[in-house]
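Weekend entry, working from home. Most of the wet-lab plans are on hold until the incubator is repaired, so I used the time to fold the two sequences that have been sitting in the queue since the last round of cloning. Logging both here for the record. First:
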Amino acid sequence: MRHYVIHSSRLFVFLLAISSLISCNEPDIDACRDGNCTTTYSENSQVVEIANEDWLQLNVIDGNQVVFKYEYNYDDEELIADDELTELLYFQVPSNRDEFTIEASFFETHKVYFNRVCFCVKLGFEHPASGTITGKKLDANRWQVSADLSINYYGPEDPLRLIFDHVFTRN
């Protein structure tokens, strides 16, 4: 009987360790838990691309679209130099919509762009490789927006995942 108890406790520890490893690979739904998120939108706006010699920049100007901006500023470590990191996501939808779904094949049309601002080698905005963004207007000042995106920031073999479900407020 004692032999059974020892194996059961070892099995329990083994299964607990395996489940911990598996859960580490799942993306975190609250992408802003280790920093500060700002989720806003601007009406009567549009995203304009500015191509430089080495990278792509964006400007938001007056227009006939609703432009959404997701900004995530990671927490800084006081004793580490150049560890600042901000992730930006921009996209736009027609102003006459109360709901939307943007699939990867329409990322160019809706000007879906991601960028990491940091002491990084890579500069500029780029389209995510795959994913979906959905949104529903809650009232005159708020949208509920969800995203599940893969960005080939480090290459297609090691994509970044951006997953969130947030309320965006009018800017």
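Second, folded right after the first finished:
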Amino acid sequence: MRTALVLSTLAAFASAPAQAMLFDAWSKALVHDADYQIALTEPDIKREDHVQARSQLLPQISAQGSRGKADAKITGTGPGGTTLNRNYDANLWALQIRQPLVRPSAFYAWRSSSKRVAASTAQLQDARQTLLANLIETMAQLQFAEASLTAAKASVLGAQQKLSFTQRQLSAGNVTRRETAEAQTALALAQQQIAEAMLDKSTQEATWTEITGDAQVMLPALPADLVERLPLTESDVSKLLSQAKDKQPAILAAMEERNAAALDVQRARSEHLPTLDLNASRSFSESNTENTIDTTFLTNRVDLQLTLPLFSGGATQARVRQSQARLAQAEARLDGVIAKVQSQIVRALAGLTSARQQAASARATLEAAEVSLRSATLGITAGTATVADKINAEADRAVAERDKVRANVQALLFWSQLQQALGLLDDDRLRALMNALEWKEPPTQAISFGT
């Protein structure tokens, strides 16, 4: 049932063409990720705790009955006493009703459980945000790993060409062995970059599979101007923090836990107070004891039962102190969550600003690299450039392309972190991201892995 609910909630996303790739991964993650599945059951557990707490304030009805046979030997003790043997049926039926009237401890337990239901619901939303943030981060890191691998391969090709040229020049006596060794070192470094890029890509692939359960995926390349498309409406930290206090699920959950802990203190203190119950019963007995043979009783009873705690061996005072300590913990935890969210907002805003600047610089560098590549290509025909020059220009272009992807990836990660810190990383923000991933032209490349 939960799977059907998740899929129906996100069905509106499926209409987007290229963006359906991200929707498909998100829908799989919602039904596969173990941490989210655990968080999904927590509100159910807390709701059942709430029902159990409420039951302590509601009428308690019980019935009991017995039917049997008895064999009694009755002997008189006085002068001329006789002995009688009696076989008789013994029956007892009773209906009892208890209505709690004053139960302070049960009342505070019921209120505290309702706060924990709210806290678990907020924690579920926080888990949903975390899952989506992890999915977006992994998608972005896969893009960068692929760009890094492409750049590393281009660097290796250029280093190989340079080494070959240097070796020919060494044979001709035009260079020294030192220059050849430097070319070999450059090739080894470029090959190491390939190994590192492949390891990074494999790591991100494994993370993707862990989140979605899918070992094969196609991811569209990020648009070149993604950093400019990401929606951002506010940059004032104080306003954003105020907004986060109203919507951020981690803050809301910590607030509810603090409120529940405060009620637990009241609950512990109320154990010093008396309780009052209304009891009613109706019973029928027939020959129930040896003294009531051949006698029936039909009894109706109503009474008020007052219970006053007098001494508990120090247990009640200990529970009060314990609940006060837990309240202090909850308050400190709330302060810590708020401080963490504020720090995330500041870092994300600064990161977005930096990513925009890096993206602008990377685009300019990429344009210059493309001009150099065209010049090298034309220079080969004109005899003013060599194949090595072209390969080097292609390597420079691949590095510039990698840096552009890095800027977009950083922007996407910081944007995702900001939305999560504000409590806005939900289905609506996923739609906004999908709109930002909408190309004016079909993407020129896609990231794929798995078999």
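Plan for Monday: verify the second prediction. The first strand starts at residue 60 and ends at 75.
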